[in-house]
Amino acid sequence: MFSLFRLPILLLIAFVMGVAYERGQQQVLCEQSGGQWVRAGYCVE
Question: How much is the pTM?
Answer without folding.
Answer: 0.72
